[in-house]
Design goal:
The chain has 12 helices and no strands. The protein is mainly α and about 325 residues long. It has a domain at about 40-245. The radius of gyration is 23 Å and the shape is globular.
Length: about 325
């Protein structure tokens, strides 16, 4: 038994190596097939970027959901089935509720679309998507709220388990409490994803959203299997940081797109910077939504400053909180 542990420990690096080799093979294929990177000005290239953006966000939210579920199921080895089954049922109900929320939101937006212009509706949903993404990317928000969200679920689980050990606590109340934990841990992330994806649905259609969400759910499912079936201790923090960097790029792109949509809807003015019009190529606007206008560039700079600023504020707060603990130790 002891000899098997090192082999299991080498599984994760092997998977990363295989992934890196596949990425390298893709680059080689591009060099042979299309003499390098594809032309970004070819129509439809932005659809691929949209699929990647959606998959990154869905995977990011799914990763956070897995982490919450892993936290509330930790320490239940002695009563695994009685605790994990209702939590799993609650999470499944949360997934179904997310799908129902998608249907409701789509119907509401379609009804609104009959009375407003398409550009105005895209601009409005784009603002909502940017707001959701800013919350997801806000490190200060995660320090104060999301970490507290995990603590709340963990403390609530302990209270339910302690209450179940006391006389007079019904089996139904115990199952309901555990199911509620699973439901809320998934449904909160699901609502964020539903609101975010409406902007992409209006711009590209439901099929593109389905492809992106499918890839994100597939990656989430792999992490979930490794966590709950194979009982692997994955580097969640490193994975969250990596996906956070990817989401940072998505945020900059979305803010640029949103500012341009607001310009097209005549919600904000369009101030073209002539000196940059000849410097910024057309593919920068297609791939990264970088346009030679003052409004779009300022909006992207402000979004980047908000995310970076919240990270440093959260880091300073974390260092101040850890200082008394170190002194006490």
């Amino acid at each position: 038994m002891r000899g098997k542990k090192p082999r299991r420990g080498r599984l994760w690096p092997v998977l990363l190596t295989v992934g890196a080799l596949l990425g390298f093979a893709l680059l080689v294929w591009q060099a042979v097939a299309v003499s390098g990177n594809p032309n970004p000005l070819v129509p439809g290239t932005d659809i691929t970027a949209a699929v990647l953006d959606i998959s990154v966000l869905v995977f990011r939210e799914g990763l956070e959901c897995v982490l919450v579920l892993a936290a509330i199921t930790a320490g239940t080895a002695g009563r695994r089935a009685s605790v994990r089954n209702p939590i799993a049922a609650g999470a499944a109900a949360g997934f179904l509720a997310t799908l129902a929320t998608w249907v409701v939101v789509v119907r509401i937006l379609n009804g609104i679309g009959n009375s407003v212009s398409a550009l105005a509706l895209q601009a409005a949903t784009g603002l909502l998507a940017v707001a959701v993404l800013l919350v997801v990317m806000n490190w200060f928000f995660h320090k104060l709220y999301w970490t507290g969200w995990i603590s709340y679920h963990t403390n609530r689980k302990r209270a339910i388990l302690d209450g179940n050990n006391e006389e007079g606590t019904s089996r139904a109340a115990f199952l309901w409490g555990m199911g509620t934990l699973g439901f809320t841990s998934l449904y909160r992330e699901g609502v964020e994803v539903v609101l975010f994806l409406q902007s992409y649905r209006l711009r590209f259609g439901s099929e593109i959203v389905l492809w992106g969400a499918g890839i994100g759910l597939l990656l989430t499912g792999i992490v979930g299997v490794l966590t709950f079936v194979a009982h692997r201790r994955l580097p969640y923090k490193k994975m969250l940081v990596f996906t956070g960097i990817l989401l940072g790029v998505v945020l900059i792109v979305m803010v640029g797109e949103q500012a341009q949509e607001m310009q097209l809807a005549h919600w904000i003015p369009t101030t073209t910077i002539a000196s940059l019009a000849h410097v910024i190529p057309g593919w920068m606007g297609l791939w990264f939504s970088v346009f030679p206008t003052a409004e779009t560039l300022i909006a992207q700079a402000v979004a980047a400053l908000l995310v970076i600023g919240s990270y440093f504020v959260a880091s300073r707060r974390s260092s101040r909180d850890s200082a008394p603990a170190d002194a006490a130790a």
